[in-house]
Amino acid sequence: MALELEGTISQKLGVQSGTSARGQWAKQEFILEFPDGNFTSQACFTAWGQEKVQELAKYQVGDKVKVSFNLKSREFNGRWYNDLQIWRLAPAGQATAPAAPAQAPAYQASAPAAPIYEAPAPTLDDMPGDLPGDDGEDLPF
User: Fold this and answer.
1) Is the Cβ–Cβ distance between 80 and 70 less than 8 Å?
2) Per-residue pLDDT tens over the stretch 86-104
3) How many Å is the Cα radius of gyration of the chain?
4) Pairing relationship of beta strands 39-48 and 23-36 according to DSSP bridges
């Protein structure tokens, strides 16, 4: 699930790094303050990987940013933990690249040359009169 949020960086935590079975890793967490109705809320985001840590280094506490992130959860010893992993960080207010317009299906691409008219709904005058064998009752039972 990809989400976006604009706010102000209120705190940057230290860079954590180490070595795992897959090799070197690095991450840095930061706190983003964002408007939530009449109040201000905070969320802790994670920049995973050396590239994202370097991208976060371009911003200082107090900078307004737009964060694109994925929400991930995992269970450990019966408790659930959420992780907000960023995949893009940009200055706030900066427009993202517009998505390419989707092509219309072929059946919508060509409009009819003339409007299509439908027959009018039948009126009471169009209804048949008394049928042979009709005893004048409206109900069939």
Assistant:
1) no
2) 999 999 886 655 444 444 4
3) 31
4) antiparallel
